[in-house]
Amino acid sequence: MSQDSIAAGAYAGQAASSGASRGLWTSRWAFFLAATGSAVGLGNIWKFPYITGVHGGGAFVLVYLGCILAIGIPLLMAEVMIGRAGRKNPSDAVAALAEQSGASPRWRLAGWVGGLTGFLILSFYVVVAGWALAYVPAAASGGFVGLNGESSGALFGALLADPLKLAVCASLVLLATLLIVGFGVQQGLERAVRYLMPGLFVLLLILVGYAATRGAFGQAAAFLFAADFSKLTGEAILVALGHAFFTLSLGCGAMMAYGSYLPAGTSIALTSLLVALADTAVALLAGLAIFPLVFANGLEPGAGPGLIFVTLPIAFGQMPLGQVVGVFFFVMLLIAALTSAISLSEPTIAWLTERFRISRLKAVLLSGAALWLLSLGSVFSFNLWAEGTLFGKTFFDCLDYLTTNLLMPLGGLATVFFTGWVLKRKRVSEALNIGHPALFQAWWWLIRFVTPLGIVLVFLNLIGVI
Ligand code: PHE
User: Which residues cross the membrane (predicted)?
Assistant: First the structure.
């Protein structure tokens, strides 16, 4: 046997035992696109601009960038590392690593809760993505022309009041998500992000170009980048921290699942950094696409959650080419949501197939049915069940609160604690393979002290203790 074939045989054995038969991304680039697709979503285009608007602009953006650096990136690296080292769905990957470090495999619960969190988020994420879907034909047919604050609010209100339309839109988004995920890692996820992500980026650049030529670009840039610290409140800092978490898809198994398909030898540190950079760039560019139009039309930047679905359509209705630009905008939002939705479902699908040894198709159908029923709950909470509340919150609000405010920070905290205090330093250093001892030391310090402290602060604030 030649040296090469021995090496190839050894590699194949290693690959099979490390779970490569589950499929791997074909390249580092594919992982980068998929992870960026997960990170870039409604959070970047819908949420980031409106929370920046509400919290006064530049200083908030600066704090947010600090949170991404000190908390988001270290945790993203930890999640991808756990996924790759365990080569399984989040729950089994955590258990495998725990055992290797002599800890209880019961730590799998942390991965399991992560998967459940992603599953629950997905059930209402498709409903919001459905709003974007409903707004594409509305924009195309000139439905925004002549809107003012009141009529635009009424248009959005009419959508929310229509259970059938909402259900159809959410179901279509869910169907598209499941269809992509059903085809597996390479044929489904990878193929989808290869086309969708460049498309999203081109649309974003067109929109920024349009805003730069037709909108109040200077005013918007000043709003986003001139830091006035007198406007910064304690609450704003915590919102920035919480958002850094959400926007990088942390604390819910998504990045762990994607990490489990990452080829050995790819630098986790570098790729995570690039994903975070791309995600931040998209959030800032989304701000630069939206605010110039808002300012140019004399509208309110601090309008809150309605910024995109109520304020922006008024601008589209007033501007030259607004019909086309409006369609581009909502298609972009839809693509961003879809590439996030597939990452939200992957942990559950991987868990079902690996734990119960069922086919991917069965796993997709099973989880799809459960997701669809849950999503109807969110749909009805805007109309038929609007009165039925728990602690003053509708079903949709309850799910949003439970996942974003409780489960995600808890999942993230469990992950950092597990990485920094339960796993053996040597095992982590091997798995991360950062190459540079000083860099590893810096990351290790962040993961053990800074990241957990940041998460505890967000958590306490969100549940109203501070
Ligand atoms: N990061 C996505 C966004 O910004 C949301 C998301 C959260 C996706 C968690 C996957 C997992 O919209």
Answer: 29-46, 58-78, 109-134, 154-183, 195-217, 237-258, 270-295, 321-342, 363-386, 406-423, 443-463
